[in-house]
Amino acid sequence: MPLERRVSTTLLVIAALLLYCGPARAQEEGAVTVEADTIEYDHDGNVVKASGGVVVNWHDSRVQAGAVVVEQDRGMISADRDVVFESPDFRVSAQTLRLSIGDETGFLEDVDVQMKTGGGSFGGKRVEKLSGRRYSLREGYYTACEIVGDEAADWMLRGQEIDLELDSYGSVREGTLEVKGVPVLYLPYMVFPTKETRQSGLLTPRLGSSNQRGFIYSQPYYWALDKHRDLTVSADIETAARLGLTGEYRYTPSKSMRGRIQGSYYNENIRGVPRIDDPAFVGLDIPEDRWHVEFSHRQLLSPGLQLYADALLVSDDLYLREIDSVALGVRSRQLRRSRRYTDSRVGLAGHRSFASYGVQLSAYQNFFGRDRFTLQKPGEAWAALDGRFAGVNYQFNASAAAFERKQGADGQRLRMAAELELPLTVQGPLRSYAWAAGSGSFYRMQDSTVYGPQRGSSLDERLRDPLYQVGDNPVLGAFEAGFDARSKFARDFALSDSKWTSIRHTLEPFVRFIYSSESSSDNFPLFDRFDSIDGRSVGTWGLDSRFLMHGGETSFEYARVSLSQSYNFDERVLDDQFSDIDLAGFIRPVKPLALRTVTSYNVGASKLTGASTSISYQSGPVGFLRGERNEVAVAYRFVSRDIVANQNAGFIRDAGVESAEAMAFLGFTRTLSMGLRGRYDLESGRFIERGGGIQVESSCQCWRVDVGIIERVNPDELQFRVLVDLAGLTGFGSSATDFRTATLDEVRYGDVGFWRPGW
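Given the sequence above, the corresponding structure tokens read:
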């Protein structure tokens, strides 16, 4: 009998009526509620027919439609007219629906599905919902872009047959790729990803062109072995240089163990006779078969005890300089290319309470000279203890090490050291402390001859000349002591600005004195820094000053400046006994703009010995630049050297380093940007590296295209790069707009500290 009023019927026909599988199963599936303007019951109440604003709820799912039929004994629901089906994962719009309530499988027609996570959409003329998150589409479509209103998606796949498994993969047959509703590519068959988590499959290839290496193509494949292990293998082609394979295996079987193994092999038969421009490497043989192996392992054996191992081996001295590893970031590649040797090590490091200890074995692969491998410090063990007793901080440490050289002094050393620190004033405006340290080193020499650059016409000849002989069992004692004092004065100034209520100015003067005993290099071997303690007395003084803006709970460092200088009581530095005056400054008048400088000036020599200055600006839309990201930065670096060693002519005139770098990323609109970067050597008057390109990105960030050029001197090559990235689908190539240089990588807009370029 029809009910002519709004009815809410809870079908707790408790489960026995909902599904035919019995009371226990029905209770597990839960209750179904139906709300409608009109509800009718047929077949002894096993069939419920509802019409007029129907809403059906079960679990976390809901169906809204103009008319709904619920078959309780079969657990089926049929809906017609403006059907909306919602679950925690998606929202479906369709004209008809036939669905099993138990496993939510069935058919839908004229379907549009909007994913609630990830922003993807799919649909079709007819959609079959299979078990789990699998769908079969006829005359369907799929896109990872968000569809706004009637606007066409930035990209979309259409096909006669599309099979989807969400958070996995999909396939399309007889399909096309559309960009803004325009078909641009026919796809007879294609497999595409529908997830962003770890999944085996082909990764984005790298494409490029170089005047030295020819056309560059690298195709990686990612294999998720299990949730603890994965493997990435890449086939690399450089048409004018080499063919090869690279691989990386990573493992994390437990919280206490992790590691990775990398390797590569390249054949350079297509390269012909290599050209070596660097005079330091002229005459070196480059093998046709080249390889490298890299290994890193960390394992926590017990609380406070860790095993570590790192290894890097290459086939030849020029491998790291010539072969560009795309697995590394730009900064890492630059550091690797400048290495003089590789280092491999394995060891144990532990701690317990205030004690630490360890043992390490090391080996090195030399890139210069005749020695292929050198041990240098093949074995080392150490132990340290620190704490506080009767108001005095103390530290004791001991180490034993072996030193190996193919030519020159080597042997074993036992070193013991102690340091005491006494706080003098810990309260009030002045904080000060004094400290003293002593060490003793005991040597057992195997080779007592020390070599060094003394005379001869070539560097190799000079390094083969003996300088002196050390004793068979020398003993070295060293002593250091010092004093450090610092104070701080601060004053707050009220501001009438609506945002900032006050500004705090601080002055922090400091003074330091260090005395160390003298050690003679004529009597002891120079194994490492512990053997090179010079006898000297040095005083250092300086001043730090800061300006801090305060407003409510917000603080903002407006500016900082630091001045420091030292005086050597025992010897001259350049023209007198004063060191350089170091000036470090930072000012940020507004948050997007920052100016940094670090400058060293020697008063006695009236000479600027080093300087590094940068100005940077980063903001969102500004002026005619309407993009979300806009950055500009310029840096200048100068380093003066008094003398430079020459391989063939002893010592030559004063020389230095002077360079300028700049970068810009300009967002003209939300979708069109330009990136430029470069480093210019002012000494030679030429660019060391430069690059740039255009980036086009969709408004919903669903796809991006980069096109640009990179030119470098070391290695001397010109690259053309293109990147096409379809978010959630695929991509290929590499970017030129993200090209970076070394010095500008040190500019950090949020960091208000000082940075030194290393003079």
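The helical segments are 23-29, 319-322, 330-337, 459-463. Try to locate this feature in the token string yourself.
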